[in-house]
Amino acid sequence: MYFGPPGNTLVIVVSPPPDRPGLPARRVTIADIARAAGVSIAVVSYAVNGRPGVSAATRERVLRIAEEYRWQPSAAARSMHTGPRAVGLVVSTAAGGVSSASSFLDLVTAIQDVFGKHGYALLLKVVESVDAAVATYRTWWAERRFDVMIVTDVLSQDPRVEALRALRAPAVVVGAPAAAQGLTSVHLDDAEAFGRVASYLIGLGHRDVAVVTGQPELHRTQVRVAALARMLKDAGGSLLRMTTDAGPEEAAAATRQLLTSPVPPSVIVYDSDQMALAALDVARRLGVEVPWDLSILAASDSALCRLSTPALTALPSPLRELGTAVGDAVLAVLNGQSATSHVVPVGGLAIRGSTGPLARRTKQ
Amino acid sequence: MYFGPPGNTLVIVVSPPPDRPGLPARRVTIADIARAAGVSIAVVSYAVNGRPGVSAATRERVLRIAEEYRWQPSAAARSMHTGPRAVGLVVSTAAGGVSSASSFLDLVTAIQDVFGKHGYALLLKVVESVDAAVATYRTWWAERRFDVMIVTDVLSQDPRVEALRALRAPAVVVGAPAAAQGLTSVHLDDAEAFGRVASYLIGLGHRDVAVVTGQPELHRTQVRVAALARMLKDAGGSLLRMTTDAGPEEAAAATRQLLTSPVPPSVIVYDSDQMALAALDVARRLGVEVPWDLSILAASDSALCRLSTPALTALPSPLRELGTAVGDAVLAVLNGQSATSHVVPVGGLAIRGSTGPLARRTKQ
Question: Is the keyword Manganese assigned to this protein (chains A, B) (predicted)?
Answer without folding.
Answer: no
